[in-house]
Design goal:
The protein is of the alpha/beta class and 420 residues long. It is built from 15 helices and eleven strands.
């Protein structure tokens, strides 16, 4: 009995605890995606980095750049004065400029202004002018069972503090810079066309790499400087909240000239210039050549196909005079039989019918008037016409016709047939 009561009481307690647990709201899961927003308070936003700026530049005004800011206006917005120069801070996963924007940014630095950029992927113009590119190792990979982030705990070091390590148990910090033109080593003999050799400010270390690879560098451009970070993760809330990492953040601003009176801060997940789709295609060599080749082929097609397309017109033979062919066939039949007189009479009859239908003259009486009328209408001379009519009279009166007479009759009649 006691055991049954204990079981009943335990069941009631368990049911009560289950109801209480179900009634409690579930905690909102932490968003570990890389946002980099300056107002965001998620681990991988940049709220803390932005809020700390007044501590480093107390006399500077801080302006926020909107996402589609046109950097062609940067030199007008950041006028120089006796108070000092301006600082442009750009943070993003990808930072890309148009050709004109990049030219304005270069002039911006030559005027003595500062630029600090932190990105996992930089613009092609920057890579071309400064002979550098980023190897963003594992930047996009979130933490998982196989990617615990433990190798990032002490991954960073500073040139000023080589023995001190910085890091976090989080996303990869192993992005670093590569200098292809220098064959992976910094040689003082290499001649940069735009900037001098970079000053290495920080390194990233792997498990078996004690020397490290550069992940923070600075270039001198005219009277100003360009400071590059190979990853924006060093400016995130989660990184700055780790013990000791504030010193790393301090070092970023210590290399910037101290006479800054104006700070421009821009956060871009993927920054692209405001330009047409054609301009985006033409900025990349592969797509640029593909577009040019396509245009060339299209123009060639239009040129060669511009002519009127028409099927070959077949040659149509003119209709044969079947009546004349029939007469010739019949004439050959009579000629082969050897009856010249009968053939001559047939030729005479057919010729008279031709004269009546073609020249509209009466052939009942073949006299001198007939000869003159036929000569005028046919255009055959009077002598030739008279000779033919005389031969016809001879054939009609006779009973035989020689081959010569038959030939002369044929030739005389043919003159009229061939006359237009």
């Amino acid at each position: 009995m006691l055991t049954q009561r204990i079981h009943t009481f335990s069941f009631a307690i368990g049911l009560l605890m289950l109801l209480v647990a179900c009634g409690q709201p579930k905690p909102k899961p932490i968003d570990w995606n890389v946002g980099l927003g300056q107002k965001g308070k998620k681990p991988y936003d940049t709220y803390i980095a932005h809020k700390l700026l007044p501590a480093y530049f107390p006399d500077a005004s801080i302006s926020t750049l909107y996402s589609n800011y046109d950097f062609n206006n940067i030199n007008r917005a950041s006028y120089d004065s006796q108070e000092g120069h301006s600082l442009l801070v750009l943070i993003g996963k990808t930072i890309i400029f148009s050709k004109d924007e990049w030219a304005q940014l270069m002039q911006y630095m030559r005027n003595g202004n500062e630029i600090v950029m932190a990105s996992a992927s930089y613009d092609g113009y920057l890579e071309k002018d400064f002979h550098v590119r980023v190897s963003s190792e594992g930047f996009a990979a979130p933490l998982s069972r196989y990617n615990t982030g433990s190798d990032n705990v002490a991954a960073l070091s500073l040139a000023r503090y080589p023995m001190q390590r910085f890091g976090m148990h989080g996303r990869s910090l192993h992005s670093h810079f590569i200098f292809p033109a220098l064959a992976d080593t910094l040689q003082d003999t290499y001649d940069f066309t735009v900037a001098q050799l970079p000053t290495i400010l920080g390194y990233v270390h792997s498990a078996n790499d004690t020397l490290g690879k550069p992940n923070m560098v600075q270039y001198s451009v005219g009277a100003g400087h360009l400071t590059l970070l190979a990853s924006p993760m060093m400016l995130t809330n989660y990184f700055l909240l780790q013990p000791g990492n504030r010193l790393y953040y301090d070092n970023i601003w210590q290399v910037v000239d101290g006479d800054i009176f104006q700070v421009f801060w821009g956060n871009f997940t993927h920054r692209s210039p405001n330009q047409s789709a054609w301009a985006v295609l033409m900025r990349h060599p592969a797509t640029r050549w593909a577009v040019l080749l396509l245009l060339l082929l299209s123009v060639s097609f239009v040129i060669f196909q511009f002519r009127r397309q028409q099927r070959i017109i077949p040659i149509i033979r003119p209709n044969e005079n079947s009546s004349l062919e029939f007469v010739n066939t019949v004439a050959m039949l009579y000629y082969n039989k050897g009856d010249n007189h009968n053939l001559a009479c047939k030729m005479d009859n057919h010729f008279m019918e031709y004269l009546r239908s073609h020249f509209l003259i009466d052939t009942h009486t073949l006299d001198q008037q007939f000869i003159l009328r036929l000569s005028r209408k046919s255009g055959i001379s009077e002598a030739s016409t008279a000779s033919l009519i005389a031969l016809i009279h001879h054939i009609r009166l006779g009973s035989t016709v020689s081959d010569t007479e038959l030939l002369l009759l044929y030739q005389g009649i043919q003159q009229f047939y061939k006359k237009p």
